[in-house]
Amino acid sequence: MGTISHSHRPVRRIWSIATAVALFSAVVPVHAEDPVALADPFVGADHGGNTVPGAGVPFGFVSLSPDTVDAPTSGYDSNTAIMGFSFTHVSGTGGRSKYGNFRITPTVGEIGGHNLHFARRNEAASPGYYRVTIGNSQPTSIGVELTATRLAGIMRITFPKGSAQGNVILDATSIIPLYGEGQRATAVHVEAIDNKTVRGWASFEGGWNPAPYKLYFTARFDRPARRFGTWRARQGETVLNEGPESLDGEAQTKSAQDRLGLMTEYDLRDDFARRTGLWAQFGAYDGQPVQVKLGVSFVGMDQAASNLDRQIPGWDFDAIHANSAALWRDALGRIEVSGGSEEQRRIFYSALYRSHTMPHDLSGENVWWPSEEPHYEDFYTIWDTFRTLHPLLTLIQPQRQRDMVRSLLDTYKGTGWLPDGRIAGANGMTQGGSNADVVIADAIVKDLGGFDTKLAWQALSKDGEVESDAPFHQGRVLGDYLSKGYVSLSQTRSASRTLEYAFNDYAIALAARKLGRTADAQRYLQRSANWKNLWDRDLGCIRPRYADGRWLENFTCEYLYPDKSMPWWEAPFYEGSSRQYSTYVPQDVDGLIAMTGGRESFVRWLDTLFDTGQYEQGNEPDILAPYLYIDAGRADRTAERVRHILATKYHLSRDGLPGNDDAGAMSSWYVWSSTGLYPVAGTTRYYIGSPIFTRSLIHLESGRSFTVVAPMASEHNLYVVDAKLNGKRLNRAILSHAEIAAGGVLELEMAKKPGAWPLKTE
Q1: What one-character DSSP code corresponds to residue 357?
Q2: Listed residue (17, 91, 2, 90) closest to 657, CA to CA
Q3: Alpha helix locations (H) across 572-633?
Q4: Among 71, 53, 93, which Cα is nearest to 661's?
Q5: Helices (H) and strands (E) in the chain — how many of each?
Q6: What's this model's pTM, rounded to 2 decimal places?
Q7: Complete DSSP assignment for 708-751
Q8: CA-based Rg of the chain, rounded to a whole angstrom?
């Protein structure tokens, strides 16, 4: 897009709420659409989005979904054969994944544990439901339907008519394969109790964080199996055992003998082919599907059975599906949008759906320390989700957000640190900052309430003051940062860490001020300016420095890290360039404007990021950048950039996301931007952008609501030229959290050309 002159003529307009409502009613009908019908779980499943299309409930741990042979971290891709359906997944993530546990594969004919790869057709999904027909030929085709609760899932299997026998094969050692990399089963135990009940457990290590976890299950069939038992497979062979029995399987990892060098070179390999499970065989198809339900638990097999029997007490698949859909209808109904195109509304509700998948609610399942607090796992990862997802939940799912904050603080209490990324009871590697600080501070400054603020301050100040005992997994490296005012090249990710630490400090400063800790607030506010110590005025970007103060040699702002000359985590910027990261100074945009030479220079500086193709919507460090034009008095440029991103980077397709969804971070960016609002996480500020919908009603707590009304919003009417908040003229493109949380109506007049609005930036 070309640069538009800033010398806009003021446009006089006389309009009121009544006029706006009349316009809105006359021009744009209110759509009474079912959001569950609009949301498409397949959006983002392919080409790097890595979303999960299977069945679950909002924030449920069980994610019952197909696993395919060439899948990414989600376990799923659209083009390759289905291996079966496992009960646990992560959605939208990168790295080496986790989970993929307790895969069930229905088959016909002989029972075996190898080559369970099946073609598919008739694939469909909606929130809380998935169905497919698998089979390599018509006579062996099997219909599969899936639905789920928080800790359990149920499958309805329709074997082919006339088949002599149908089988259900459960692999207790299954994980997301990833070419045999990542997780390995370290121990497994299965029990064939009787012809209707099986159970077991398996422990694993590896994956995105290599820490071990142990997961238990209990499964039940809705009819007696004709034959049943356990199985064990190795390379090229499967051994079946029939009848009630227990079986301990072989580990897929090196044994103690391996480590002592007593095994052959062949045996020294991790043997991914060692697998253990259970099987059940049913008689000739009698016109009724076979149903299998399975509950999971981190506590034990009895707890898995309790979870199963409590959450899926009977065999009414349709009732479980209806309940799941109702939970999704409630979640997706927290924001009602009208106007725009049907495609845009479908993209919106698909994005809102993905904003409710992680972290997982594992309350009652905390085996890592004694606690009665709400417990959430799989904050994978906070360095992404703190920016857009958690601020969204604060508005539309405040009780969930309270429970997540309580869980994070309880994790601090139980482990000694707040996590930056966590899964299956252990922290993964930190990307840069201590960004749980922002989540906690956000809850404090927005008066979310319902958690221990003294404990919160204790956790925040530890991140800010105490050198980490394991900096790759928690906390910060503070030596150089505190003494020199920047993280030096003596540490990995030094420049991006400096930027993130500085903003983390700003969030802590705001929390301290809110809590009446004036001296602490001032100290952290001063530290939040540390980003300036890496600013190179000649290059116009953040530049890494050595501990002795020298700049990194041969440096350019555009160089994209990492490259293949170094390990992934060793670069001075984590997954990005200085040009991208240099926009991340939300605590001091005025200072950034000054560093670049003033407002007009700042606009040109931002234009360079976008116009040369260096802006990256698929990675979070620069996703605030389109809104920074507002601080320079150019809300029109924000409108242009945001509308372009919404139109070109998000689609109603399986490759419809700009990159990894990152547990809803990318999707919640769309939710915010399409409604015309955008949060600065950790603060009380929201930008007013360019809504694509004529009406966005956000349901808040205690029956309140906040509505963005933009009657003339369209593809061409992208500029806000006048605004009113609750009937009073608004001459700024910034709202406070208090203004939104109180409820009310924001009226935006949209036009094809920019006007003089806003008259001021704050």
Answers
A1: S
A2: 91
A3: 578-581, 589-595, 599-611
A4: 93
A5: 19, 31
A6: 0.94
A7: EE-TT--SS--EEEEEEETTEE--BSEEEHHHHHT-EEEEEEEE
A8: 27
Q: What share of the chain is helix, strand, coil (3-state, %, to 5)?
A: 30, 25, 45
Are 189 and 300 within 8 A, CB to CB? no
Close Cβ partners of 601 (under 8 Å, ≥ 6 residues apart):
none
Residues facing residue 379 across a β-bridge: 422
d(C-alpha 484, C-alpha 537), whole Å: 19
Exposure of 762 by Cβ count < 10 A (0-12 exposed, 13-18 middle, 19+ buried)?
exposed
pLDDT averaged over every residue in the chain: 93
- φ, ψ for residue 642 (rounded to 5)? -65, -45
Contact 136, 203 (CB under 8 A): no
Report the C-alpha gap between 25 and 431 in whole angstroms: 48
Q: What separation in angstroms does the CA of 588 have from each of 487, 501, 510, 642, 666?
A: 19, 14, 13, 21, 24
Closest among 68, 74, 79, 78 to 92, alpha carbons compared: 74
In the predicted model, residues of the chain with pLDDT beneath 50 are: 1-31, 255-268
- What residues does 144 pair with on adjacent strands? 132, 157
| DSSP string for 431-486 | -SS-THHHHHHHHHHTT--SS-HHHHHHHHHHHHHSB-SSTTTSSB--HHHHHHSS
Secondary structure letter of residue 582 according to DSSP = T
* CA nearest neighbour of 694 among 718, 667, 724: 718
For 206-265, what is each residue's pLDDT tens digit? 999 889 999 999 999 999 999 999 999 998 889 999 999 999 998 987 544 444 444 444
Write the burial class of residue 547 (CB in 10 Å: 0-12 exposed, 13-18 middle, 19+ buried): middle
Q: What is the distance between the alpha carbons of residues 297 and 375, in angstroms, rounded to a whole number? A: 13
Which residues are bridge partners to 243 per DSSP? none
Q: Give the full edge-to-edge strand order of the sheet including 685-688.
A: 677-679, 685-688, 734-736
Q: Is 619 strand, coil or helix?
A: coil
Q: How far apart are CA 360 and CA 379, in angstroms?
A: 8
Residue-wise DSSP of 302-359: HHHHHHHHHHS-S--HHHHHHHHHHHHHHHHTTEEEESS-HHHHHHHHHHHHHTTS-S
Distance CA 279, CA 233 (A): 13
User: Beta partners for 108?
Assistant: 166
Nearest one of 424, 450, 300, 439 to 362, comparing CA atoms: 424
Element (H, E) at 373: none
Residue from 508, 449, 434 nearest 682 by CA: 508
Contact at 8 Å (CB) between 540 and 583? no
> How many residues does this entry show for the chain?
762
Contact predicate 291/221, CB 8 Å: yes
From CA 224, how far away is CA 355, in angstroms rounded? 40
Exposure b/e, 594-629, CB count within 10 A at least 16 = b: ebbeebeebbebbbebbeeebbbbebbbbbbbbbbb
Q: Which tokens is 527 given?
A: 């530290």
CB 580 within 8 A of CB 620: no
The residue among 150, 244, 249, 144 whose CA lies nearest residue 198 is: 244
Distance from C-alpha of 475 to C-alpha of 467, rounded to nearest angstrom: 7
Q: Tokens 């990492």, residue?
A: 562
Domains (ranges, CATH) in the chain?
Answer: 62-328 (2.70.98.10), 333-751 (3.30.2080.10)
Q: Which of 689, 559, 716, 538 is nearest to 624 (CA)?
A: 689
Cβ atoms of 220 and 226 within 8 Å: the answer is no
Q: How far apart are CA 579 and CA 556, in angstroms?
A: 9
* Token duo for residue 31: 């759509």
Q: What pLDDT does residue 606 have?
A: 98
372, 437, 441, 509 from 457: Cα distances, Å: 21, 10, 9, 11
Give the containing element (helix H, strand E) for 294.
strand 290-297
d(CA 383, CA 386): 6
Predicted pLDDT of residue 254:
59
